[in-house]
Amino acid sequence: MNTQMIICMVIFAATLVSYMLNKIPMWLTAMISLAALYFTGCIDANGALAGFSNVNTLLMATMNKPKLLLLDEHTAALDPKTAETIMELTDRVVKAKKLTALMVTHNLRHAVEYGDRLLMMHQGHVIMDKAGDEKRALKVDDLLDVFTSISIECGN
């Protein structure tokens, strides 16, 4: 393992520790770690900005506890690694601040893994509503089966 990789891992570990200890505001931790990763060469300018606007927006939106956090396809245009990072951060923020969040997503795995309740909609109507044990028992294939049946009905 080279020195550069060690530096990057130390910055990443320090960021995680800062988030877990919650002594420094999350937005400040994000800004400091982003700058540190960029200036040490761990990420380039494009990498630094890839998920930054989403992280920044999430952190700003939750600085004051909102009554409802609306997340409309907030990982849709991101690469898979950044999308996972954003989802993990979102989950942590929502749980830590005990927020009510409404997440719109076409990512079936995210729909199954995150949240306490799942609504599937089609043409403005709720076609699936699962919460509690029913939601926890859902698998991606269950959602895919319903989605596929809708697509077949619509001639897709």
Description:
With 156 residues, the protein is an alpha+beta fold. The protein has 8 helices and 4 strands; from the N terminus they run ααααβαβαββαα. The chain has a two-stranded parallel sheet. It has a two-stranded antiparallel sheet with strand order 3-4. Helix 5 links the parallel strand 1 (69-72) and strand 2. Helix 2 runs antiparallel to helix 4 (52-61).
Provide keyphrases for this structure:
156 residues, alpha+beta, 8 helices, 59% helix
* Overall mean pLDDT: 83
Strand order of the largest sheet: 1-2
Instruction: Write down how many β-strands occur, each being a DSSP E stretch of 2 or more residues.
Output: 4
* Biggest sheet statistics: 2 strands, parallel
Secondary-structure class? alpha+beta
Distance between the termini: 50 Å
- The 3D shape can be described as elongated
Our Rg estimate from Cα atoms comes to 18 Å
- Amount of beta strand: 5-15%
**Alpha plus pi helix count:** 8
Helix-strand sequence: HHHHEHEHEEHH
Helix content: 55-70%
Q: List unreliable stretches of 5+ residues.
A: none
Nutshell version of this structure?
The chain has helices spanning about 5-20, 25-40, 45-50, 50-60, 80-95, 110-115, 130-135, 140-155; strands at about 70, 100-105, 115-120, 125-130. It is an alpha+beta fold and about 160 residues long.
Q: Strands, helices and their partners?
A:
Blueprint: H1 3-21, H2 26-39, H3 45-50, H4 52-61, E1 69-72, H5 80-96, E2 101-104, H6 108-113, E3 117-122, E4 125-131, H7 132-137, H8 140-153
Parallel strand pairs: 1-2
Antiparallel strand pairs: 3-4
Helix pairs in contact: 1-2, 2-4, 4-5
